[in-house]
Amino acid sequence: MQRWPTETDRKSPSDGSPPPSPRPAAAAAAAALLRQSVVPGATATQVGFNWGLKSSHPLPADKVVQLLRDNGVTKVKLFEADPQALTALAKSGIEVMVGIQNDLLDLSPAASPPPSTGSLRTSPPTSPSSAFVAVGNEPFLETYKDKYLLVTFPALQNVQAALIKAGLGRQVKVTVPLNADVYQSVSGLPSGGDFRDDIRPLMVSIARFLLDNGSPLAINIYPFLSLYADPHFPVEYAFFDGGAAPVVDGAVSYTNVFEANYDTLIWALEKNGLSSLTVIVGEIGWPTDGDANANLVNARRFNQGLLNRVMAGKGTPKRPSAPPEMYLFGLLDEDTKNIDPGAFERHWGVFYYDGGLKYPLALDGGGASSQPGGCGTFPGGGACSRRRPASTIPDRRQWVLLQRAGPPQQGLLRLQPVFQAASQQSGSCGFSNLSVITTTDPSQGSCRFGIMIDTSRRVATRSPSSSSSSFLSHGFRRWGAQPAVVVAAAALSSLLL
């Protein structure tokens, strides 16, 4: 019998690249996502979101923060020190993990923290809480070919030293978000887990350093990518509702790849004398487009199943007492992400790029309907539509570009994102006289023409009323009592001056 207990995720590097792929038009910026009910054994603050910023027309940062607050989200992870995002988060009460990009890890002066900390300028925390600096992002990914192998640990040590010097060593913790390919199992079972041979000494040193400083190890686990990479991977093993044939490892039976993957890491830590190191899940989620298995039904099934586990207080066989802290990937779709790993890369969001809710989620598994809010799109819309039939296209390359998308109407979607990314400038709808600007929505059925956000003006977001039967109306407003902690405060940046 073939086994898939510990599929690791070999995720390719993902940086921004235009143009965006099409997505269904968002109905509205949703004001309700999660009902934050307290369940024995779990906390309402155990799940956060990854807030990615690779968008041609980003939703204004203050609107994103309001979206988080309206939905009771109390923690967020940023991949970079974006000034607008940090400013909007500064007084929100939302706990923040701020990332230092990989290309900033290579330092010359050994005593200086990575230069990205200099851009994190905000008020220092006023009272104890927990927040994080994420040093790099999956720096040991095999596709990087050892590029960051020698600089990641020194950067981690430098950031920790900077935090201590700033008096934030106990409040702000460091971590290194790692891909699940840093560990492996020769037997194919979790109990055979150990760190990858080529980086084992380095991983042990990093894990020991994190343990000694009271910091967690962050691991990114993507069951979707296991399914995407292997056509023989059992679909049900990617989900949490018990439909998969169990994989037996001694006295333990695994029915989903998340538990098996996570426990493989725990076994690796135990074998190296690091059994007490805290492990958090830095990224986990499911995309809604770009692959046969990437759709709204599967995304809701996976994310709701994951959240149900958290709120039930369910851990894994190796760490059964409580679920790990985790960050869903992601909050919003990102229409300029690199799609070399797959077209799905732009569709991980629980929300569309403009804040429109894709599907409802409830932390307690409830069935209340969500309450939509206002939409942040160009007033009146506008689309770049076909001027003449495809048979008369003069440029052969454009012809191929259009026809690859399928039927002619779908081919137009290749033009529309370019027009929208250029903020509907008339000159961006030329295409060798192929197209024409129209104010009539050319969408037909499931073939939708998306309209970008007008970033030149502020768009009001409508909040649901208190009488709404939405998730939000019963939510716990945790941020009111929690002090705002934004990572790498002014004291950190002053060390670079």
Automatic annotation (TrEMBL):
Pfam families on file: Glyco_hydro_17
GO molecular function, one term: hydrolase activity, hydrolyzing O-glycosyl compounds
Key word Transit peptide present: no
GO terms classed as biological process: carbohydrate metabolic process
Source taxon at top rank: Eukaryota
Record field: compositional bias (Basic and acidic residues): 1-13
Span list, region Disordered: 1-25, 108-128
Keywords, alphabetical: Glycosidase, Hydrolase
Biased composition (Low complexity): 117-128
InterPro entries to which the protein is assigned, alphabetical: GH (IPR017853), Glyco_hydro_17 (IPR000490), Glyco_hydro_17_plant (IPR044965)
Gene3D superfamilies, alphabetized: Glycosidases (3.20.20.80)
Assigned protein family: Belongs to the glycosyl hydrolase 17 family.
PANTHER family in the cross-refs: GLUCAN ENDO-1,3-BETA-GLUCOSIDASE BG1-RELATED-RELATED
Record-given protein name: Uncharacterized protein
